[in-house]
Amino acid sequence: MAHYRIYFLADDGHIKVAHAVDSDDDAAAILVAEQLLSHTTYLSSEVWQGSKLVARIAVNGVGAASFPPADKVSPDMTRH
Fold this sequence. Notes:
Layout: E1 2-9, E2 15-23, H1 26-37, E3 44-49, E4 52-59, E5 64-67
Antiparallel strand pairs: 1-2, 1-3, 3-4, 4-5
């Protein structure tokens, strides 16, 4: 298990709430963050493992959509 922090962000991008979670891997931590975000009024969150940004999650009107950090995006992921 790895330790993660989920930060819920205000509209201005500042952290309003932090939540600690232990998960088996990044995907499991992201799933927890998406579930928690869906039960808040916040529009975005970030998942961190130590100093590593795992994902940014934004509510897109239909639900939460996860985005990997910009430095983890491959050229194939940016094509439409």
